Amino acid sequence: MPNKAAPFDTLDRQIVAALTENGRASFAEIGAAIGLSSTAVKRRVDRLRENNVITGFSATVRPAALGWLTEAYVEVYCDSAAPPRRLAEVVRNHPEIAAAMTVTGGADALLHVRARDVEHFEEVLERIRTEPFIRKTISYMVLSHLLPDSPEAGARRPATPAAAPDSAAIQR
Q1: φ and ψ at residue 66, rounded to 5 degrees
Q2: C-alpha to C-alpha distances, 121 to 46, 90, 126, nearest whole angstrom
């Protein structure tokens, strides 16, 4: 039986947009902006969290401020016997890996790596390559960010997403 998503209306979208813009906004501030009481905003945020629409709150930190000046994407090619959960275990052991995902195409996975400098990146890459099921890697060094307001570039807030589908399209 297919899962039905919880109703997601215009007020929910406004709440999500407000929290995306400023995750530290109070329920009262959000309520004043969209015409709800702080109690009503809290109830809606609680429901959005329960339904995994809002999955957490975090701070966005500019990587260069922490000394992470080198950035690359690494295609990972595995032996056929490497399940995604095994690759997930490996990438969790490397704090330099900012994001990791399985992908379609020739590569099995794509890693987003941040390092202090090229030497540090090379050391990270060599550690990744020591895994017995990794056949090869191909690296792409980031020269500049074409979308400097994106979270990947270390922006203070996420770029404004394209218009979200309406609640009818979200329900399955």
Answers
A1: -95, 5
A2: 41, 16, 9
Is 75:107 a contact under the CB 8 Å cutoff? yes
Rounded-to-integer distance, Cα 108 and Cα 31, Å: 45
Give the span between the Cα atoms of 30 and 26, in whole angstroms.
6
User: Average model confidence (pLDDT) for the chain?
Assistant: 86
Give me the sign of the Cα torsion angle 110, 111, 112, 117.
negative
Residue listed under structure tokens 């690494």? 74
Is the pLDDT score of 44 beyond 70?
yes
**Ramachandran category for residue 159: left, alpha or beta (phi over 0 → left; psi -120 to 50 → alpha):** beta
